Amino acid sequence: MAAGGGGVADPLSPAGVPCAFSPLNQAYFALASADGLLRVWETANNRLHQEYVPSAHLSGTCTCLAWAPARLQAKESPQRKKRKSEAIGTSNQIDLLALGTAVGSILLYSTVKGELHSKLISGGHDNKVNCIQWHQDNGCLYSCSDDKHIVEWNTQTCKVKCKWKGDNSSVSSLCISPDGKMLLSAGRTIKLWVLETKEIYRHFTGHATPVSSLIFTTIRPPNESQPFDGITGLYFLSGAVHDRLLNVWQVRSENKEKNAVMSFTVTDEPVYIDLTLSENKEEPVKLAVVCRDGQVHLFEHILNGYCKKPLTSNCTIQIATPGKGKKSTPKPIPILAAGFCSDKMSLLLVYGNWFQPIIERVVRTPVMNSEAKVLVPGVPGHHAAIKPAPPQTEEVESKRKLGENEISIEERLGALDIDTKKEKDDLPQTNSFPVLLTQGLESNDFEMLNKVLQTRNLNLIKRTVLRMPLHAVIPLLQELTKRLQGHPNSAVLMVQWLKCVLTVHASYLSTLPDLVPQLGTLYQLMESRVKTFQKLSHLHGKLILLITQVTASEKTKGMACPAQKAKLVYEEESSEEESDDEIAEKDSDDNWDEDEEEKESEKDEDLNEENEEEEEDAEEKDEENGEEDRDVASEKELNGDSDLDPENESEEE
């Protein structure tokens, strides 16, 4: 069965696209692609049988689909004898394909006529249809939706027979019991309903995210000595969105626990699940799970009571192209769906792209025993390296072209040759880290673990932890505990791994009942480290203060003085004599105050010189006047004026 519809923006919507094999001999494979088209392919010759475009394929895209059960065909002949109209209706149901849409309507498409048979609308759902299930006996149809309701349809009249509330949130998956009297429904919790009364018979814990798959795995209880009421003792399987664990539940009496009895672990979210029913307690259940990463995990297990440890796959199938050239590496081709044939031994694989898939039948499935030879890289326990494809005269194209013969899976697997010699110096590729980590933990290969655990890329560590299988989480934690007790440099890297593992896988670790004894050493180690943390933090703070002060003092000592010219330089004279040139040079370096004083002294000297000159001029004038006086006196003496009285002299003056 398909895990859910594609093309929905809701992060909690299932991955993949709606698809399913026809019942009985798996002659047809129907899929509703993201563009809203329904395509039906013939599995025998890989040819497109029909293509149907719904009128509202853009607004009301297909979200789920289901083939009418093959058991109606066996009841066709007796009904024809009773009434012709019933015979026509029942025969039409044999080839019907029910399509649920995003707007709440349900379409019934006839693959024989190649046209729409009828449409179920009135009184049904008013929101997206999440799952459709046909009743194997009466031809009724059951559907669930985001509107929280479950609807029982009469496909003859295209009317609602019954409608009831299935959950407080959206109902995402349905499954009818083998006897046709019970109905399983699931949102996050799982409920078992009595179809006749529409009452809840049992509750189950469910998943943390919306359940995308519900399938009954057994048709008889393990203890056949007790009377069988048709449901008690049966096992069923559930898968959920973003959950890498498939849980197995057992219908028990009322006072028993409601948790899962066992689980299967896969590498990614399941997008398509198919299984072979176990008809007795000694027959194992064969399970094929297609994951979102394009791999198929095959399980084979006898369901018999409680199993504590998650079960890993017996084999993993992955398809890859040989690549071009000698040095090219194989490129994986995603597997879209896988279904068991009626012989329970062969397997139909659908791979490639949704618009033109390749359908091939594997005659013998690899799910046998532990001695089976695995030809595919990426499986836990596979230690060989991939050797490049041998040179070919014609290069193989990975894309399928019309009119050309497609390469079979056998040829593709043969192209992936196994080389037993591997150089130790080769570094692992990024996408092989989860595989190398798992292999190293299983084989205790110290060198292989070093190649993975010594990485310092935080994004690579996170991707590796996300993709590693769940059964390897506890061994990885134990390996990290050993390495944490070693060299401090190695412990720094191990702390990054430990933090990522505890963050990513916290939900899985919380479900383990014996987690404390398994991780007792790690707890003790962490407690011993934490005890000294406070003292170390105090010491660390003091050391930081000391280092800061020492660094600051060293910086101040080592700082060079900035280059500046001195305005005044004073030097003691070595001798009394100093040249005029040196004095001039020193005077040039004096400040402007000394220059002004010199200028003032020069002005005073000039003034003194001028005064002296004036005084000299005055003296010269006085001397000239004295000489004139003496000349006049001598003349007077000659003229006899010297005998004059003093009085007369004064008068004359």
TrEMBL record:
<feature type="region of interest" description="Disordered">
    <location>
        <begin position="568"/>
        <end position="653"/>
    </location>
</feature>
<feature type="domain" description="Small-subunit processome Utp12">
    <location>
        <begin position="444"/>
        <end position="546"/>
    </location>
</feature>
<dbReference type="InterPro" id="IPR015943">
    <property type="entry name" value="WD40/YVTN_repeat-like_dom_sf"/>
</dbReference>
<keyword id="KW-0597">Phosphoprotein</keyword>
<keyword id="KW-0539">Nucleus</keyword>
<dbReference type="Pfam" id="PF04003">
    <property type="entry name" value="Utp12"/>
</dbReference>
<comment type="similarity">
    <text>Belongs to the UTP5 family.</text>
</comment>
<keyword id="KW-0805">Transcription regulation</keyword>
<feature type="repeat" description="WD">
    <location>
        <begin position="122"/>
        <end position="157"/>
    </location>
</feature>
<dbReference type="GO" id="GO:0000462">
    <property type="term" value="P:maturation of SSU-rRNA from tricistronic rRNA transcript (SSU-rRNA, 5.8S rRNA, LSU-rRNA)"/>
</dbReference>
<feature type="compositionally biased region" description="Acidic residues">
    <location>
        <begin position="640"/>
        <end position="653"/>
    </location>
</feature>
<keyword id="KW-1017">Isopeptide bond</keyword>
<keyword id="KW-0698">rRNA processing</keyword>
<dbReference type="InterPro" id="IPR001680">
    <property type="entry name" value="WD40_rpt"/>
</dbReference>
<dbReference type="InterPro" id="IPR007148">
    <property type="entry name" value="SSU_processome_Utp12"/>
</dbReference>
<dbReference type="Pfam" id="PF00400">
    <property type="entry name" value="WD40"/>
</dbReference>
<keyword id="KW-0690">Ribosome biogenesis</keyword>
<dbReference type="GO" id="GO:0005654">
    <property type="term" value="C:nucleoplasm"/>
</dbReference>
<keyword id="KW-0804">Transcription</keyword>
<dbReference type="GO" id="GO:0001650">
    <property type="term" value="C:fibrillar center"/>
</dbReference>
<feature type="compositionally biased region" description="Acidic residues">
    <location>
        <begin position="571"/>
        <end position="630"/>
    </location>
</feature>
<keyword id="KW-0694">RNA-binding</keyword>
<keyword id="KW-0832">Ubl conjugation</keyword>
<keyword id="KW-0677">Repeat</keyword>
<protein>
    <recommendedName>
        <fullName>WD repeat-containing protein 43</fullName>
    </recommendedName>
</protein>
<dbReference type="GO" id="GO:0003723">
    <property type="term" value="F:RNA binding"/>
</dbReference>
<comment type="subunit">
    <text>Part of the small subunit (SSU) processome, composed of more than 70 proteins and the RNA chaperone small nucleolar RNA (snoRNA) U3. May be a component of the proposed t-UTP subcomplex of the ribosomal small subunit (SSU) processome containing at least UTP4, WDR43, HEATR1, UTP15, WDR75. Binds to RNA; binding is required for its chromatin association. Interacts with CDK9, DDX21 and SUPT6H. Interacts with RNA polymerase II. Interacts directly with UTP4 and UTP15.</text>
</comment>
<dbReference type="InterPro" id="IPR036322">
    <property type="entry name" value="WD40_repeat_dom_sf"/>
</dbReference>
<dbReference type="InterPro" id="IPR052414">
    <property type="entry name" value="U3_snoRNA-assoc_WDR"/>
</dbReference>
<dbReference type="GO" id="GO:0006355">
    <property type="term" value="P:regulation of DNA-templated transcription"/>
</dbReference>
<keyword id="KW-0853">WD repeat</keyword>
